[in-house]
Amino acid sequence: MPRKSLILSCFTAAILLSGCQKPVLYKETRMLMGTVLSIEVAAPSTESAVALMPKLWAESERLDNIFSRYIPGSEINLINREAGHEPVPVSTDMMTVFTRAGEISRLTGGAFDITVGPLMELWGFFPKIKGKVPPEAEVKKALLRIGWRSVELNPSRQTIRFLLPEMEIDLSAAAKGYVVDRIIALLVEEGIESALVNAGGDIYCLGYAPGGRPWKIGMEHPRNEEDLLTVLELRDRAVATSGDYRNYFIRNRRRYSHIIDPFTGGPVRNGVVGASVLADDCLTADALATAIFVMGAKKGMELIESIEGVEGIIVTEERDEIKMRFSKGSAIKLDEKKLSR
Question: For residues 316 and 325, is the Cβ–Cβ distance under 8 A?
């Protein structure tokens, strides 16, 4: 599943945690699954923060070798090569992500579909953005290889099998969220109460930012990368965004986003230019953001408002005007001082 492209700006500052004690806000960044992963931790000292990092990066690298399509020997590439011929034994991490992906596919009526890998390649979005508009006959042919219901999971044997020939999965709209969740879990195990983990715009804000304030997450303007739509204030909450303005190409003045509609076989074109989902875990937020982008503003918002504990913002472009829609009863907090003009 294509992965959503918005990179949210994060605003943090090292302010007093309590009394005269000054925390250290320490950050490290590396590449993971074709995107940037940053880990920002508030700790008593630089030394204590640095000491945490090897364990966090070791876990990140382990998961990269499971989920990254950019690593030839990764588990996902093994599945794509072999699962069409026979059941493939998989790791607990892979089974967890597949199981949740299937639940969200069912919940969204197939708007979220991890089997769109062949379409991603056909439109030139993998492994690098080359951008091409394929003949309609090729799109129709590729659609015969798409269908989340044709991924067979056997939890007792912990295997995965494809029921259609030449199927290919893409977990970019789920796995990065799972990686974020795993790193947060490790931080909590280590007694960290304040941290922010960001994998290419899939974000979890742990606790309060230094100073006892919520973490501030900037939502990028979809048509002006130097501007912000708004700034969210989050605590113990995940947010993920799908947008049409990072991974895209333009042909004949028409924008083609990397977010593929599994029903039509082409890039989504329904007026939605961004969909942000807030949830208790980043995997759920990640997958739902993609699904809502595909579903469109009306159906997408109806879905958000039907799920307990989930909130959302849908951004549309109507006659060159950008509009934001917030879910009803939302507890989303905005930093009004940071709102763009």
Answer: yes
Q: What span, in angstroms and rounded, lies between the C-alpha atoms of 195 and 12?
A: 10
Contact 296, 271 (CB under 8 A): yes
CATH class as words, domain 9-66+174-338: alpha beta
Digit-coded pLDDT (tens) for 233-274:
999 999 999 999 888 999 988 999 999 999 999 999 999 999
Query: Rounded to 5 degrees, what angle do the CA atoms 5, 6, 8 make?
Result: 145
Phi, psi for residue 154 in degrees, rounded to 5: -120, 90
Task: Tell me the pTM.
Answer: 0.90
Question: Could you state, in order of their start, the residue ranges of all structural domains in the chain?
Answer: 9-66+174-338
Between CA 41 and CA 196 the distance in angstroms is 7
Residue with tokens 């007694």: 191
Buried b / exposed e along 306-326 (16+ C-beta atoms within 10 A) = eeeebbbbbbbbeeeebeebb
Cα separation of 77 and 82, whole Å?
9
Nearest to 203 by CA among 231, 161, 222, 224: 231
Pairing mode of beta strands 272-279, 311-318: antiparallel
Q: 93 and 178 in contact (C-beta within 8 Å)? A: yes
Contact 174, 114 (CB under 8 A): yes
Least Cα distance to 196 among 54, 51, 329, 9 occurs for 9
